[in-house]
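Record pair follows.
FIRST:
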Amino acid sequence: QVQLVESGGGLVQAGGSLRLSCAASARTFSTYAMGWFRQAPGKERQFVAGIIWSGGSTYYADSAKGRFTISRDNAKNTVYLQMNSLKPEDTAVYYCALATGRIRMGISRSQTYDYWGQGTQVTVSS
């Protein structure tokens, strides 16, 4: 069983930056991809960014392109989301997810991911 622990959320003013971290409790040798999703109140969970563990290819939602950067540290079994130029509409609970590759429906699809973190709140004030 893999546990994912997120950290780094908080309150920031518009235009500011935050870096989210997600540490996996087990070795990620069987990891296909990791991703970040977010869910705002009253809205569906949406894809933010994803990274293929082997090779490091990255993918972003249109809303994240140019502002957010996903990266990984294989040695630490950790994935990061650097968020710059934050906007009030970025306010949401951010979830980290890990895909083993058992189901491959596309890196932006939540069904692809087998394990989820508990979420970390990001609030951007105007």
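SECOND:
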Amino acid sequence: QVQLVESGGGVVQVGGSLRLSCVASGRTLDRYAMGWFRQAPGKERREFVAAINWSGGSTYYAEFAKSRFTISRDNSKNAMYLQMNNLEPEDTAVYYCNADTDPSTYYSGNPASPYDYWGQGTQVTVTS
């Protein structure tokens, strides 16, 4: 049974930073692409944030995340991270990590794609 557990969320003021973590258990995910999605309050659909291939050599970002967020991973710890800087109120959301064997699944940024595994999410709240 594979579990992805997110942590690092919290309440932060505008302009602040947070580092989210996603740790996998149950199997090694060093051959999986991994990614972050988020779901803002009142929104029905999750939104793609960023993804990273199995080695960490390739990364993909949503436009809003390119200049402020950095995705990374540490396969020795079976973990992935999202460093978020200069946070804005619009970044308030539940952030979810996921994993899939096929990195091309992330190209469309479609949260409804059949990703192999999802975490339960961590809340990020940005106050002004």
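COMMENT: The two ends are 40 Å apart (CA to CA).
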